[in-house]
C-alpha cells in the first residue's frame, strides 16, 4: 500500500539522503487494464530501519553478479521487409519506439540479433555463395546485396544511429548498439546429404531446409564455413555496420523442423570452434565473441559441459546462448553457470507467437497471459545469470 511504500528504507546505503521515486504501473483487474499509469510517488530513505523489515530493501554492495549487456530484438528479413513498407515517418517512429531512451518514450534497446543467411522468417532461402565446391569462397558476395535489397542493412544502420544519438543526448559517451549474428544453415553444398527423405534420388540430397543426423555440416567444409563467418562479418562492416559484437555457431542445433537448419552435437561444435571458427575469427575479427548452443534451456547444462570439456574450444567461447521455448528451466541455467562461472549465459530468442492476438483486441486474458509469460522469462533469466535478453522479430 502507499503508506508502506512511503516508509520504505534502503539499508547499507552510504548516503543519508531521501529520494522521491516516481513510478508507473501496468495492471489488470478482470477485463480492465491500466497501461503505464502514473502512481503516487514514494520516498526512499537510507539508514537503519528497526522494526520495519517488511518495508526495507537491504543492499549488499560487496556482492556482485553478471554484467548486463542489454535488451533487444531481431533484425530478421521479415522485419526489414515490413519496415521498408512503412513511409519515412513510420520507419522513424518504429526505430524511435525501440531504440530511444526510456526517458524519451523508447524501450532503450541496445542488444539485437541478425541472421547470417536466410532464416525461417525470410521470404526465401538464400546464402551469399551458392557455387558448389567453392571451397575458397571466391564467389562469396562481399556486397551482401540480398540483405541490402531486403532492407536489413538500412534498418540496422538506422538503429545504430538512434542508439548513438541517445548516448550523446543523455551523456553516455560511446553508447553503441551490439549485434549478435546467428546462422540457421550453411550453404546446401557445405552440408552432408540427407538420405531416405522425400526427393532423395538415392544418393541423398543437400538442402538448407533440413539436416543430416547427428550433424549437418560436412566435415570436409569446416574450414570453408569458418571462413564464411569471417567474410560475412567483413561484408557487413564494409556496409557501415559497426555494431557487430558476437556470433553464435548455430541457431537451434538440436532441431531440424523443415526450414533453414543444421544439427550439431556438443562435441562436433566444440571441435569446429577449437580447430576452425575460433582461430579464424581470432585472426580476422578478434573483437567478435563466440557463443555456443543457442537453443532451449532444458539442455543448456549438458551443452555447456560438452562444449567446455574441449579446453581449446573453451578458450574461444564467451558462453552459451539460450532460447525460451522449453520453459523457464532455472535449475539448468544454474547448472550451466556452475560448469564454468567465468562464462556468460545469453538469452538470444523468445517468441510468444501462437495465434495473432494483439493488445487492441477484445479479451484481455488472451494476451495478458502471454505478456506475463514473457515478463517472467525475462525476470528469471536475469536472476539466473543471463547477460542479455533478445526478443525475436522486431516487426512482422
Structure summary:
The chain is of the alpha/beta class and 396 residues long.
Low-confidence stretches: 1-15
Largest sheet: 8 strands, parallel
Record field, number of beta strands = 14
Helix content: 25-40%
- Class per helix and strand makeup: alpha/beta
Radius of gyration: 23 Å
Kindly report how far apart the N and C termini lie.
40 Å
Overall shape: it is globular
Enumerate how many helices there are, as a single number.
Answer: 11
Order of helices and strands: HEEEEEEEHHEHHEHEHEHHEHEHE
Strand content: 15-25%
Oligomeric form:
single chain
What is the spatial order of strands in the main beta sheet?
A: 7-14-13-12-11-10-9-8
**What is the average of the pLDDT values?**
91
Description:
The chain is an alpha/beta fold and 396 residues long. 33% of the residues lie in helices and 20% in strands. It has eleven helices and 14 strands. An eight-stranded parallel β-sheet has the order 7-14-13-12-11-10-9-8. The chain has a four-stranded mixed β-sheet with strand order 2-5-1-6. A two-stranded antiparallel ribbon has the order 3-4. Helix 7 links the parallel strand 10 (244-248) and strand 11. Helix 3 (88-99) packs across helix 5 (152-169), helix 7 crosses helix 8 (300-309) and helix 8 (300-309) packs parallel to helix 10. The longest helix is centred in the last third of the chain and has 20 residues, at 364-383.
Amino acid at each position: 500500500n502507499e503508506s508502506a511504500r512511503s516508509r520504505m528504507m534502503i539499508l547499507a546505503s552510504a548516503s543519508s539522503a531521501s529520494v522521491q521515486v516516481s513510478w508507473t504501473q501496468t495492471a489488470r483487474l478482470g477485463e480492465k487494464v491500466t497501461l503505464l499509469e502514473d502512481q503516487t510517488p514514494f520516498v526512499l530513505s537510507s539508514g537503519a530501519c528497526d522494526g520495519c523489515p517488511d518495508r526495507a530493501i537491504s543492499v549488499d554492495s560487496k556482492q556482485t553478479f553478471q554484467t548486463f549487456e542489454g535488451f533487444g530484438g531481431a533484425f530478421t528479413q521479415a522485419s526489414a521487409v515490413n519496415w521498408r513498407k512503412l513511409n519515412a515517418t513510420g520507419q522513424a517512429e518504429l526505430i524511435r519506439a525501440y531504440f530511444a531512451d526510456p526517458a524519451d518514450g523508447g524501450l532503450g534497446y541496445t542488444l539485437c540479433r541478425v541472421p547470417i543467411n536466410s532464416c525461417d522468417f525470410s521470404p526465401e532461402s538464400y546464402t551469399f555463395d551458392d557455387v558448389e565446391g567453392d571451397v575458397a569462397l571466391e564467389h562469396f558476395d562481399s556486397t551482401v546485396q540480398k540483405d541490402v535489397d531486403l532492407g536489413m542493412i538500412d534498418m540496422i544502420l538506422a538503429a545504430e544511429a538512434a542508439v548513438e544519438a541517445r548516448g550523446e543526448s543523455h551523456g553516455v559517451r560511446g553508447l553503441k548498439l551490439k549485434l549478435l549474428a546467428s546462422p540457421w544453415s550453411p550453404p546446401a553444398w557445405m552440408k552432408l546429404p540427407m538420405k531416405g527423405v522425400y526427393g532423395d534420388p538415392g544418393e541423398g540430397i543437400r538442402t538448407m531446409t533440413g539436416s543430416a543426423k547427428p550433424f549437418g555440416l560436412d566435415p570436409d567444409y569446416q574450414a570453408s564455413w569458418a571462413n564464411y563467418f569471417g567474410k560475412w562479418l567483413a561484408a557487413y562492416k564494409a556496409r557501415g555496420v559497426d555494431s557487430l559484437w558476437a556470433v553464435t555457431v548455430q541457431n537451434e542445433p538440436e532441431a531440424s523442423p523443415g526450414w533453414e537448419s543444421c544439427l550439431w552435437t556438443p562435441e562436433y561444435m566444440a571441435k569446429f570452434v577449437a580447430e576452425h571458427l575460433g582461430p579464424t575469427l581470432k585472426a580476422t575479427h578478434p573483437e567478435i565473441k563466440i557463443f555456443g548452443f543457442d537453443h532451449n534451456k532444458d539442455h543448456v547444462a549438458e551443452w555447456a559441459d560438452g562444449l567446455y570439456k574441449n579446453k581449446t574450444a573453451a578458450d574461444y567461447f564467451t558462453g552459451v546462448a539460450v532460447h525460451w521455448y522449453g520453459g523457464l528451466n532455472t535449475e539448468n541455467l544454474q547448472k550451466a553457470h556452475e560448469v564454468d562461472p567465468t562464462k556468460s549465459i545469453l538469452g538470444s530468442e523468445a517468441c510468444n507467437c501462437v495465434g495473432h492476438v494483439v493488445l487492441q483486441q477484445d479479451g484481455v486474458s488472451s494476451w495478458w497471459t502471454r505478456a506475463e509469460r514473457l515478463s517472467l522469462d525475462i525476470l528469471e533469466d536475469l536472476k539466473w545469470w543471463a547477460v542479455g535478453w533478445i526478443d525475436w522479430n522486431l516487426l512482422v
